[in-house]
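User: Predict structure, ligand coenzyme A.
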Amino acid sequence: MKIRQIENLSELDKAISFIKETLSPYALDRDALMREMKQNPNLLLYMADMDKIAAAVFGTAENNKSKIDYVCTDKAYRRQGFAKKLMEEMLHRLRVRGFESVALGASEMGEKFYEEMGFVGKLLIQSERHSVEELLSLKTKYPVASSGIWKQSPESPPVSQVVLSLSQVDRDLQRLYEKKFPDCSTQMIYTMQLSRQ
Ligand SMILES: CC(C)(COP(=O)(O)OP(=O)(O)OC[C@H]1O[C@@H](n2cnc3c(N)ncnc32)[C@H](O)[C@@H]1OP(=O)(O)O)[C@@H](O)C(=O)NCCC(=O)NCCS
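Assistant: Predicted complex:
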């Protein structure tokens, strides 16, 4: 199967349905993806078996930052190297465009895949109800990489964020945070340096 990029609206809609089915219940913003198709068409990648989409990796780039938003493979095609092939192509394209690094947030299922691809993980802890200080009050053995308040848009509620540096997933710590701060969410986030040494 060869790697293709989204070229038109009908391909985009097919890919959106595929990502919704595979990554459900995530919501996709069609308008944002239409803009992406115009601005960064070579970052919307997929592979298809005849007409059936088998895997997709969608990246975005704005200013100096690049992100990967969606990575998924149809159940029937998993563990055959499709996501890896698409991700390698994505990383190559981002390198060619001069990005120094790329970031993403992972589902629990994606963690091993990203680690295998060489991404470096950190744990993101977020809460709308609890302050940064409260989140930091749970002492852990991991260094704090960053902390602060984040707003998706000027109208959005402020979200307290703490990012811990850890070398591998610590599920017990995630569950501990979620128990102690019931509205809090935890997620592994990954980055990769792209600049050539
Ligand atoms: C995660 C996902 C994208 C991986 O896709 P894939 O096409 O099966 O991945 P690949 O075959 O390219 O895997 C490459 C390597 O990553 C690792 N890997 C991939 N999936 C893994 C899993 N479920 N468990 C452990 N390791 C895994 C393996 O080392 C694998 O190599 P191997 O099969 O030779 O051992 C796929 O399972 C998926 O779509 N899951 C549901 C959606 C999702 O959670 N996506 C991630 C969103 S952040």
